[in-house]
Amino acid sequence: MTDTQRAKYQGSKSPEHCNNLSAAAKRRYADPAERERQREISRAAYEKPEVRARYEAAMELVNEKLQSPTYNTTLELALYTLLAEFPEVRKQEWIGYRRVDAYLPEPYNLVFEADGLYWHPDGPDEKRDKYLLSKGVHAVIHLTEHDLDPWLEA
Question: Where are the domains of the chain?
């Protein structure tokens, strides 16, 4: 590398360097097919046992350090009230690289999602549901504000 090249890429604080990085990122993610390809690369990497183990160990460490409870929406709290008779329910459980509102493990193997209009205006994410089903979940049950209304005041 010449001195001129070295000076050009001296650090990430150079405005020219930042502009070049931004332009490259914009090109990389402008095309929807390319965005999907990048997502698939990330998903495939996560599926490798060694990558998943490192990620889960890091997340465990982060959770230990933070020791802060996960923020729950009013709808999620209503969902937990509805599912209170099942002590084995796991709240905010990770299934693969997706986090679900509530998971009822074997023998049920069910996922429950509290879908409010604010976060889910277009309805359930079918692609996400297919992914969860591919991970061995028997069914993904979406409950709306209307469905959870009786438990909102509990």
Answer: 72-154
- Contact status, residue 124 vs residue 54, Cβ threshold 8 Å: no
DSSP sequence for the chain: --HHHHHHTS-TT-HHHHHHHHHHHHHHHHSHHHHHHHHHHHHHHHHSHHHHHHHHHHHHHHHHHH--PPP--HHHHHHHHHTTT-TT-EEEEEETTEEEEEEETTTT-EEEEEE-TTT-TT---HHHHHHHHHTT-SEEEEEEHHHHHHHHT-
- CATH assignment, 72-154: 3.40.960.10
Backbone angles phi, psi at 28, to 5 degrees: -65, -35
pLDDT tens digits for the chain (154 residues)? 455 655 555 545 567 766 666 666 666 667 788 878 877 887 888 788 888 888 788 777 766 655 545 667 888 889 999 999 999 999 988 898 888 999 999 999 999 999 888 777 788 889 999 999 999 999 999 998 888 888 887 5
pTM for the complete prediction? Answer: 0.55
Token duo for residue 100: 């679900």
